[in-house]
Amino acid sequence: MSCRAAPWSRPSHIAGPRVPTPARPRFALGSRNLWKNSWKIGAGVSNMFALPSTLFRCMASSGSGDGDFAQSTLTDEAAAPFPLYSWPDKQRPRVCILGGGFGGLYTALRLESLVWPNDKRPQVLLVDQSDKFVFKPMLYELLSGEVDVWEIAPSFTELLKNTSVQFVRDSVKLLRPSDHLRRKPGEPCTGGVVHLESGTVIEYDWLVLALGAEAKIDVVPGSAEYALPFTTLEDALRVESKLKMLERKRFGKSSPTIEVAIVGLGYSGVELAATISERLKNTGTVKAINVQTTVCPTAPQGNRDAALKVLESRNIQLLLGYFVSCIKEAPTSDDSSSTVTYSEVDGDHRKLILDLQPAERGLKGQTLDADLVLWTVGSTSQIPRLQPPDAPYVIPLNGRGQVETEETLQVKGHPRTFAIGDSAALRDPSGKLLPATAQVAFQQADFAGWNLWAAINDRPLLPFRFQNLGEMMTLGRNDAAVTASFIEGLTLEGPLGHAARKLVYCLRMPTDEHRVKVGISWFTKAAIDSLASVQNAVSNTLTGSS
């Protein structure tokens, strides 16, 4: 997901189910049983995805209504090669949410906030490979020192401690939905199962796919080996470590300068370029490369103009109309002073060379030197590699590997499976794919929570309608650009935009408790910075007058 979110919208945690409205932007396969042959263990044949054929026999429902959620029984438990996740209650609906980003976590919190009949309140399980929720739009502030890790990456344990939501730290290995299979009238059954890398199998009634996307950096020769992505907390901490190491090597020396190359000038690339250039000041140069001849081509005009003004005023070399064809190590030089080297865990690596090729007529190819290369273009969906090997198209995907969904956010052909965020390929009324941004995931989480409530309680589901509220971007420690879509032509820049952006993001933190903690921390830091600025101004005035 792009580290992008828009202002003035945060998920609501209300006391009862409320229909999201535009005014409040809170917001096939046939009948062949694909399990029949693939889940039986043949004599003497190992099957890594096999489960005993008796594992998922459904109990006859003892209720009289159509909405009963009968649980399956494990009739051959001793023969099960994988441990089953044990749900606390054997009767209440089971909701499994895969992915703890904006879409997944906020869907879980939305479900927790709704009012449910006692027998219909679902058991919610959140699965994520990390133990922390990451507020990705503020990863850049880790590089500028404006925020601490705990502020933008609180643990799931802390966020969910006052809820009934269960959390499991694990990676998803395989999806096996069964809600696309035809059932006999009145036959209750589960929605499917999820295999985790640890070997645990989760049987569920309802599934939410919110796995997001992964950085795709194996695009050109050398990019996977030498370039660093910037999409996760681990990525940000690694970039911070590299910058500190380069700054230590450069400390006290007049030359050579630190050279950082950034590939891609969408929002992420621009925010990285602005943040790192401000941090390095005169000790380094940022070389920003973009295949297009402008920056942030999809951004509002106000944000694009503000970004260009900042980039051109700093020590940034803009290389527009170029693409990187290769990244390699610089040749060994006898003159050690001509090459800046830095160390990694597995050894020393010399300065890098980027080969640039023109994407526009009239430009010539060139090469660049860099101490650090950051790659901000390209992403890939996780869903394709999670499909069952014996049924690789059981979940419908588009050409980008995103899940095809209905307007209700249900996966096409799978009434008990929802997909949101970067995992989903949902189009607006004009037929255009919705962007993979935090703003979209925020709003989809609100609708997904409501539609799960509606589906479990046999109520009509609502079609998702995206409300574009505007866009924000950081341009430094005291600089940002905020464009609101509902006020045409208005863009807040500089310190005012910076304050507005931080206020909006503070209000969007997942829980009230964390929101208060972060707000107090940021207010305290701002007060200390303001006091320090006043002291410096007074000191400079007294020094000048004397």
From TrEMBL:
Name of this protein: demethylphylloquinone reductase
Organism, scientific name: Zea mays (Maize)
Family: Belongs to the NADH dehydrogenase family.
Keyword Cytoplasm included in the entry's annotation: no
Residues annotated as domain FAD/NAD(P)-binding: 94-445
InterPro entries on file: FAD/NAD-bd_sf, FAD/NAD-binding_dom, NADH-Q_oxidoreductase
Reactions the enzyme catalyzes: demethylphylloquinone + NADPH + H(+) = demethylphylloquinol + NADP(+)
Keyword Flavoprotein carried by entry: yes
Positions of region (Disordered): 1-21
Cofactor entry: FAD
Enzyme Commission number, as recorded: 1.6.5.12
Keyword terms, alphabetized: FAD, Flavoprotein, NADP, Oxidoreductase
Taxonomic superkingdom: Eukaryota
GO molecular function ontology, one term from the record: oxidoreductase activity
